[in-house]
Amino acid sequence: MRYAVLSDIHGNLEALEAVLAHARAEADAVLCLGDVVGYGADPVACVELVAERAVTTVAGNHEHAVAGLLDLDWFNPYARVAAEWTRERLDGDHVGYLAALPLRAEVADATLVHASPRHPEEWDYLISAADGLEAFAAFSTRLCFVGHSHVPGIWSLGSSGPEYRPGPGDVTFEHGRRYLANVGSVGQPRDHDPRAAYGLWDVEGGRLAIRRVPYEIVRAQRKIVAGGLPRMLSDRLSRGA
Ligand code: ZN
Known about the structure:
By secondary structure, the protein is of the alpha/beta class. The chain has one domain (2-226): Purple Acid Phosphatase, chain A, domain 2 (4-Layer Sandwich), CATH 3.60.21.10. Helices cover 31% and strands 24% of the residues. Strand 1 (2-6), helix 1 (13-24) and strand 2 form a beta-alpha-beta unit. Helix 7 (217-226) runs antiparallel to helix 8 (231-239). The chain is globular. The chain binds zinc ion. Residues 8, 10, 35, 60, 148, 150 line the site of zinc ion. Zinc ion (ZN) binds at residues 8, 10, 35, 60, 148, 150.
């Protein structure tokens, strides 16, 4: 079984479609780590596509914001404007679907969670080597996949010691080691590479690869501006930051 692991799509339909097309040849099924909406101009199309294509999806903070489960005071001004803009465009069925998503799920020997497995509802960011290594105690599966920071990276723990490899990379799982991986962001990468990012997890092969996929950035940017969302949300897509 090979899974495409998608996170932080953020209403960017151009990026989502490019990733799904890329994954079609490489993966048997799709998993989603949340933040399907927020920031981008196509929340409805992204929610419907994820609901149709992903076999398992967990909730992100943007799902909780749009569904009224998270106070918007926790958001920065751009995220708040985007959440309010998104909320106006989703109907009751969409909001009901997003509100019902679980905070964590298990697929094969992996835990799926948007932020940190420690307290998923607190939306902590795993940024440093220590952040990730401390989170291993909070999941019992061999693997854990996260998103939230929009920056790919792989932490691992085993008898030969802890390891943290920031940045996109491929890893073949070693016997006796456990792994925590951030698969990067489909719709709003922040690691200075504007291409969409997603993870390819080969369960039997014991491998994870972070893939980068070019997409029609200018088209996604024009829709953000035309929709009346903050221009900064358009500008950052071409910087990948
Ligand atoms: Zn996000």
